Amino acid sequence: MDGESLMHVGQPDSIADRAVGTSDLRYGPEIAVPRLVDLFARYGLKQTFFIPGWCVRNYPATIEEVLAGGHEIAHHGWIHGRLREMTAEQEAEDFAKGVEAIVAATGGKPRGFRAPSYAMSRRTMGFLQDHGMVYEASLMGDDQPYLIENDRGALVELPSHMPLDDWTQFVSFPDFGVRMQIKAAQDAYRVHEEEFDAMWEHGGLWVSIWHPFVSGRLPRAMQIERLIRHMLDKGGVWFARMDEIADHVNGLIARGEWSPRRHHYPLWEKAES
């Protein structure tokens, strides 16, 4: 739930003159999130919302609705800045401000993180460890949970990939120069359904990335409900918050019941010559 944080970081000097784009982004916290929270409640689902700290602070009523639904609020930066374009000091401040906003709103520290725009830096894992996080959800290196590790320890990685990000399906946003071809909501449903069916067949982890201002619009929300019914009809599916999945993975490891793949982080220090 990015709200206008996208505009504040992308067009900070002209946001006052960008009423149309701002209204589109504001649709997310004001209209779409309550709609999605109600949808999940109808099926008894608990989900994870990645929310920049700026939005946590500026949309307290929306945050209360998310928490009342039993959902997790996870870290998504302070104001949706690209971490790899920051200095170490800027990234440290961005992380701390995002954590502080979530603590103030929820009474607890966030347990997981997804990098805004997937733009992790080589320093990001260290900041996750500094703030006691359990999982990370920006990478795309497996169909199953795996571990990312450094000399300080390991975190659970809960991967997804771009076909499950609604941005690639729908976003047409002139203020950012993004003009994806407009599609029917059912076209994205077909992508999500095929991705889910493959994961169901092979016992994988299916993680959607739905921006409320995009997928919370009425026809797309209707397709989300259609997809949920399809999943329920298939059976044998665990719908869970991402902190619950990470705890499950760590429990399996602690009991010696599963040994996931491991990636050292950062993956490379420099390109080979």
What would your notes on this structure say?
The protein has one domain (5-259): TIM Barrel, CATH 3.20.20. The protein has helices at 5-10, 19-42, 53-58, 60-68, 88-106, 124-130, 167-170, 185-202, 212-215, 218-234, 242-254, and strands at residues 48-51, 72-75, 112-113, 135-136, 146-150, 153-157, 172-173, 178-179, 262-264. Helix content is 47%, strand content 11%. The longest helix has 24 residues, at 19-42. It is globular. It contains eleven helices and nine strands. It has 273 residues and is of the alpha/beta class. The N and C termini lie far apart (41 Å). It has a five-stranded mixed sheet. Strands 1-2 form a two-stranded parallel ribbon. A two-stranded antiparallel ribbon has the order 7-8.
Distance between the termini: 41 Å
Proportion of residues in extended strands? 5-15%
How many beta-strand elements?
A: 9
Number of helices, where a helix is a run of at least 4 consecutive DSSP H or I residues: 11
Morphology: globular
Find the CATH superfamily: Glycoside hydrolase/deacetylase
- Secondary-structure element string: HHEHHEHEHEEEHEEHHHHE
Please state the second-level CATH architecture: Alpha-Beta Barrel
Mind telling me the CATH class? Alpha Beta
Task: Considering the chains and any ligands shown, give keywords for the structure.
11 helices; globular; TIM Barrel; single chain; alpha/beta; 273 residues; five-stranded mixed sheet; 47% helix
Q: Layout of SSEs?
A:
Layout: H1 5-10, H2 19-42, E1 48-51, H3 53-58, H4 60-68, E2 72-75, H5 88-106, E3 112-113, H6 124-130, E4 135-136, E5 146-150, E6 153-157, H7 167-170, E7 172-173, E8 178-179, H8 185-202, H9 212-215, H10 218-234, H11 242-254, E9 262-264
Helix pairs in contact: 8-10
